[in-house]
Amino acid sequence: MSGVLPVYRDRAEVEQRGLQDRIRSLPQQRQAQDFTREERWVQLELPFYHDQFTKVDDISICVTTFNVGCKKPPADIGPLVRKEYNGKPVDIIVVGFQEVDMSASAMWKVETETAIPWVTGLAAELDADKYYPQATAATSQSPQTPAASSNSSQISFYHAGVADNALGMSNGGKYVMLCCKQLVGLLLCAFVRRPLVEFVSDVQVASTATGALGSVGNKGGVALSMTLHMTKFCFITAHLAAGQNHVNKRNEDIHTILTTTDFNAAKRAAITSQHVYDADDIPPVKFPKDHDIIIVAGDLNYRVDMPYETAIRLAAPGGGANCNVEALLREDQLIREMKSQHSPWRGFVDLIPTFPPSYRYDMGTCTYDTSEKKRVPSFTDRILHWSRKKSLGDRITVGVLTSLQEVMSSDHKPVQLLGTVPVRVSVPEKRDAVVTSLREKCVTLGLDKLAAAQTTLSESQLDFGIQEFHHCRAQRSLFLNNKGECTASFRIFRQQNDASQGMWLRVTPQTTNVLPGESAEISVEVVLERVSLRWMKMWMPYRGQASVRIKSNLIVHVLGGPVHVVECATIVHPSVFGNSLDNIIRLESNSCLDAYSQSTPPDVSTTVSKPRLPKELWYLCDAIFKRGPKTPGLFTEAGAPDVCASIMSFLDRNNKPLPDDYPVDAIATCLLTFLVSLQETVVPAPLYQSALSAIRTGGKVPLFFVQQQLSPLHANVFLYVMSLMNYLLRPAFTSANELTPQTVAQMMSQTLMPRPSEDGVSHAADAGGHAAVAAAGSSSAAASDTRTSQAPTNHLAAITPQQLRHVIQQDHDDAVKFMLYFLTPPPSNMSS
């Protein structure tokens, strides 16, 4: 799971690994030399002083974002890519598309055939190579060596049927395509001018879905990571939450994209999927802000807050020179959010529009929306940039920033940037001078003094106060100050000193380097989710324990220097979210907070049967049943985070139906969150393969599996949820809610029976789960865990990574078939 800290190990082991990391960072040809101790120190220090031996050049760039509205490419795709700037060829061209495919069947997929015409059209327009380096997160390759991709989400020209050369040789085009990565409706294409290819390295792509469950790809981001000369670039195309009032959800979406898009995630998964691997080969996390420059271009969906009639009057029919852009921007949501100190856009520069609103037009015209919905003209399509250092950001220039009014194939207008960005290029003479200076420093001060890092940390304790599953994300900052004469390299670990093992803490960055006299900011954030709440199933109701105080230590280990310990503490309130079904059903008629506060359970007559379903689940399903069957985008459009938090808080504090003023999309999001956050899945992990065997056998075996192998409580939950899904799939509703059996089956396979290997759970946390409650004063016995980690089976241990991917895909497909079995109306499968 991205962002989870490694466990702290022996100091000598950490020192050795840190030294190996820094040695590996040396150029390959220099590693072979027999360095003296002093020269080795010089070579290790040299990369940290790159600002002193590089010059900054400017390269031209064209960035376009276009929400295509599920339409095919226009006859003339040329306006989307500008090939010249100031009379010279543009060096880098990046195009980000949104809504390439928004069909219901595509929501749970990664790539579809609809992207191919856009990819081939751009390649033809730019005379780009039809074979290009496959920029996968699992393998970083230089664009000089085209290779076949092992990433199924990477669109291949050969697969698209447009390859001229079966051997995959370059056709010598003017541009080389670095990537064309699709995530359902999102598509990112990037090209570099051929003479620059030899200076490009570390090409990787990654994607992050932010739709329902964080896995529906109708919203999210696709990102490209690349290094040009000595500058690291990250290009992101994003499609954030829609809706006039969903500003908080848009902010959460971009926060998720910027903080969880890990370019090394697939590479780590590929390595760890092997039966035997070297832990030193596992790469660290690599997020967007680990780059020098980030450029975000997409349909960010921030709106203009004013009445429709007023906005139409200011925009002027058809936009153009009469548009009062300045007046519209005064009520622009993004500009307002950029001013907030807590904005996820902190540090970004918004390229403020100077053109008419790019949204929303009547299709095929330059006339703003005349439909019944009367959508307010807004600057939804934006381009922003971020730089690690101000000196680089100041060098970014904007030559042209415009909307392409001549493109009328969509209800959006493309927005295009043409300008320059800086790149650092090594200067041999300056590099030699820095080497000489470091050698002199080594002679003057002595190696022993130089090699000893001297650092201080701003805080030794962090208190995050009271946190709940639906009210967390508190943040604190630490500052590591380098007081010594050499670069301080540090790593942050979590210490296994408590039941939670620090899994509730997210730290950014986990490793970095600090030059002498400088400091580094370390952000620590609270994240309460199923993974970090594994111990909650041991925390039972009716023990008089309304809260638990957690303390975890972070270890800031400085290579060749001190080890700093930071004690982090928080108080956690109980919730039905992130809890176990066994605990939730024990609440009976009391609310969650009341049940955990009381010391004895209610006096229930033995003649009264216990609830067959958690009442909180019933309240969620009942609200959807009564008010939501015809809700557009049901389960595919996530509810607003603040509204979802309010619903979760209501369920934890009350035993009564949800108020009618809660929107159905937020209730549906909470239902999925309830199911996916259970400490043991509805179909427990140990029974996952049995469920797949049942569907492969066929007949009534899947029904027998649910009735006979699942516990009564789990079987009741499974059948109740699937009954609701069958109701929502009635023909009278599907024309409005746009659900299909395939979409529902995909969704339910990920919520009710996710593949155990995707659980993302460190089961070592279970060992101390009971201790967390005992330390807080509980004497309850540990409950059994139905989600026990399974040891790898022998038939998986010996297969290749490619075979393993095939097995995983087959399991996914069969899990969907298992759900489809129970979505056959009427439920004839269940007849006796």
From TrEMBL:
SMART domains, alphabetized: IPPc, RhoGAP
Gene3D superfamilies according to UniProt: Endonuclease/exonuclease/phosphatase, Immunoglobulins, Rho GTPase activation protein
Residue ranges occupied by any Rho-GAP domain in the UniProt entry: 602-804
GO biological process: phosphatidylinositol dephosphorylation; signal transduction
TM helices/strands, residue ranges: none
Localisation: Cytoplasmic vesicle, Phagosome membrane; Early endosome membrane
Record protein name field: Inositol/phosphatidylinositol phosphatase
